[in-house]
Fold each of these.
Amino acid sequence: MPLEISDDAVNVFRRDGFLFPLRVMSAIEAESYRACLEAVEAERGSLTGKFRSLKHHLVMTWLDGLIRRPEILDPVAKVLGPDILCWSTSLLIKEPGDGAHVSWHQDLTYWGLEPGDVVTAWLALSPVTRQNGCMRMLRGSHASRLAHADTEDDSNLLSRGQTITTGIDEDKVVYLELEPGEISLHHGNTAHASDPNASDERRIGLAIRYIATRVHPTEGQDSAMLVRGVDRFEHFDAETRPTADFDTAAMTEHDRVMAVRRGVMMEKG
Ligand SMILES: O=C(O)CCC(=O)C(=O)O
């Protein structure tokens, strides 16, 4: 069922730089997506970690379907307009006690995309709580760019450990707890972070990065997948949808796309 979000909710997004929680599917559907994911993990090993988690929608048909769900795209379209590309997906899984965390950062600082019509829909496939390391956001921080420095930290899920060096006002920090089947939306410039999983349950999230078709790479070549509307700009190479999970055609497309992306190397894993 499509999800209507009100103009007030859109205004909250524009004011704060994020919006949550939005229920986009039942807990039972979320459970079935989680079962798909865990079946793949059982067969192929971990799908997450610093450099392993990107663009699995190019190799798994159920993820290709998920990123096109109208319940997710409708609220995204309220913010980005009718013509939408999926630029990336990222599986963000924290195992109990694995120490994985995300330092304070603004996505757009490193993604090489302009203008900033970039929204992440972050879908919970497990309960996501303060205890297991939910995201936290700095309200209103999308209005300006904050200084970042690269850090060496293997447990940081960000590829470069990019970290905001100053300007986090704890009074403006909001914790985004979610139930399975709920999403949060955040603007590409909103400062956010998350702590390690201190519970005994997995924390499973899927970040879907959507951009308006008018967005372009600031340098070099990049690719993306049209998921709604029309791409009148063609700033990105078109990606091919998978027709079977992990078949040769899908794996070849993933390799092709990741080779291009690795050249830019600003994403997180
Ligand atoms: O999953 C997390 O804890 C952080 C995710 C994140 O940084 C993002 O989706 O942009």
Amino acid sequence: METINCPICETKDFKDYISVGDRFNEHEDNQFNIVKCNCGLIFLNPRPTEDEISQYYENADYDPHRNKGNSLIDVLYSLVQQVALRFKHFVIILNHQSGNLLDIGGGKGEFAEFMSLKGFDTTLQDKFSNYNGNIEFYNNLNEIEAKFDIITMWHALEHIHELDKIFEFLNDKLNKNGIFVLAVPNHNAVERKYFKEKWAPYDAPRHLYHFDNNSLTKLLNKHNFKIVRKNALVHDSFYNILLSHKSLDFIKFIKSIIIGLNCFINTFFFGTKKSSTIMVTCKKY
Ligand SMILES: [Zn+2]
């Protein structure tokens, strides 16, 4: 384990915020500490080092690595995923109708393959994936030499130990008029208050940071990126609710619908202030 300073303001000006378990290994003494800094950032501290973290990705149920079956939840999940892919494509073509694209932390390559079919010259990177499809693929970010018009990170930034290094990479590899598009869980998500420490996006110790609108903006500005567009992704609310419940009986099902409606209404009126996921499009200053 390692103890860190706040990655945004670089101070030790933080206080204990909440203690959470690992949702794949719920053992009493398997608790992780999350702190809140004066600057607003909420982050895991202490945290497993980069070498130690891989053991926490090895669980077969870890969602991005799980092979989907034919259960109702899996079928719903893949339907929702198809809609989400189209929405992400729609947001990207507002800026670039073609070009070369790098998807960092892209898991099994669903997004990279979708964008490739849409005519983008696509590269996929993921440290823990064993992708063997047709897209150019790297485990190691440092081996990538090309420059890109579009770099995407879907639910990946919150997993990265060395934020300074990844932003150095982004500044170096993104073309002058390029866009960096990312999505992260929103710590101000409506459904969090129902689940408290059981809220699935705490996902300790894999999620190292818990952003909201303000802390995400601060981090991006610090590293030379300005936000040009924000989108609230509503579908992740339902996914978070199902994951947080773990199992589903009739009562939980009714509760899920009520919480889900509350998320939907709040996201409709307050956008990324309350949505489960914040998606932003950025450009270099
Ligand atoms: Zn701070």
Amino acid sequence: MLDVVSQELLTWRGAVIAGWVALLFAAERWVPAALAPAGDGWLGWRRVLRNGVFWAMTFGLSPLVVLPITVAAAGLTIGPVGDWRPEWWGGWWGLALDILLLDLFIYWWHRANHALPLLWRFHEVHHLDQFLDTTSALRFHFGELVLSGLVRGLVIIAADVPLTSVLVFEGLVVVATVFHHSNLRLPARLERMLSAVIITPSIHWVHHHAIRADTDSNYGTLLSCWDRLFASKSRTRRWAAMPIGVERERDLPVGRLLLRPFRRIR
Ligand SMILES: [Zn+2]
């Protein structure tokens, strides 16, 4: 049963994600939570174009680098590592456990991206965006994509995660990431209820607040429990005119963003 459903899901994954992005992109322009900063053209088109370049690079790079690493890792069993899964860790229950495990992993990986200067060099490119909407969701430097693909590959091998679980999880991550970066205004009660379980825009926008203490908090991607569990939840409440970005830094043109992680710091 799981195989049939997951096969269907994987076949439609691309279309579902594209539909979701288009829906939220339109909705956040119709009912925005915050107004885009002035001076960036109609609907902030300059920003949208800049982020569009990163989307194109992500879509170009994924099938070439990230997907092959993932597929290879899911099919790999090295000596005593891998192929150790007990019988009960399978089916729907196994899929749920895998999603929980991978979400816990990317919580810590995201935290490492903020704590380790080498990783922050790449992750900073995502944070330099001075406003948030659906287009911010895939604005990642290719260096971060490759590094996270490699480290995730090791986790997949160590935990012997089946390919179906990985692909379902990654689909969920894209859907969730587009949602929590979006500028969609949700009814306050609905957002409060959702935020008890999943990461909502109100939680993730605080992660992009241009105050370092807030940037270094709210690391979750799918579930909001990890930040509460590991004491990284910010007390700041999101407000409409909250400054977004990296404290004391400004956004840059695409070329300079791509070179920025490799610059020398004196
Ligand atoms: Zn971050």
Amino acid sequence: MQQLVTIIGTGPAGLTAAIYTARAALKPIIYAGLQHGGQLTTTTEVENFPGFEAPILGPTLMEEMTKQARRLGVEIVSEEISKVDFSTEPLTLWAGDKQFTSTTAILAVGATARTLGLPHEAELMGRGLSTCATCDGFFYRDKKVMVVGGGDSAMEESLYLSKICSEVILVHRRDQFRASPIMEARARKNDKIQFLTPYQAIDLQSDRRGLTGVKVEHQVSHKTKTINVDGLFMAIGHTPNSAVFSPYVDTDEHGYIKVTDFTRTNIAAVFAAGDISDPHFKQAVTAAGMGCQAALQAQRYIEALA
Ligand SMILES: Cc1cc2nc3c(=O)[nH]c(=O)nc-3n(C[C@H](O)[C@H](O)[C@H](O)COP(=O)(O)OP(=O)(O)OC[C@H]3O[C@@H](n4cnc5c(N)ncnc54)[C@H](O)[C@@H]3O)c2cc1C
């Protein structure tokens, strides 16, 4: 029998799409890729996903979603989709050497937050290091934090954190910012935000509990100093994981998959959900919501073929 729905990615978007399509008796298969459970498996406490009175660990939340999908009969394959041909219907996909066809595909492959590449980043993630102020800012109430970046998202993150934290130090390696003048002006006007340029973060200091400070280097004199902070927010952008699909699926100039009418791509049988098509919000709950939309739209597409 023709595979009806193939879902790519097992983050909140993909697993939600799997839950919905499984309950619609569409027998979805979901491909996990290299990071089963998606980005939330790299964090500690999640406090803003509804349904849990106490904070839930990111990996636990994704394990629960996986178990829910499995209970509904979803087949989860631990492989990456390496190639696609979306030029004809049914769609053709490859997982390694295995080639198969599917009536529809839901792309829920996420966007990877860029990090600075400093030593010990991975072990300090969620223990002082973060790539998302909306997600983690709350844990730094009345604390001193640093934001690194020079674009609009660095300004946005700094402004957001200024409402929660005692002090925000915004570090950028150049004196000029890529951010829009209005966003920069807003941040400059804010008493709690201190600009530190042209400096680059070059090392992380920590103790048993987590991050304690960041070593920064002046980009002209190369003098260094260590600034004691409780948190470092890296606001240097995301890389959407769309490369495998972009020969067929339209993306914007940053690589985010373009969608219209909720989750429709330029290819009628292909839907996109979650961070891969959302340059704006990038939250687990919005990704899950888009996964639901993609599932229902894929279901309607299949029903219309009958
Ligand atoms: C450190 C950290 C903390 C965060 N904290 C919070 C928080 O507290 N609250 C919150 O709401 N959000 C938080 N976020 C954001 C949240 O994790 C994302 O918004 C959410 O995970 C996006 O879900 P997604 O399903 O779109 O994609 P992702 O979670 O990114 O999942 C993408 C999936 O696609 C798979 N994949 C990619 N390419 C392929 C391929 N070619 N073939 C097969 N599979 C593929 C990956 O392996 C992965 O399974 C945090 C993010 C980070 C990095």
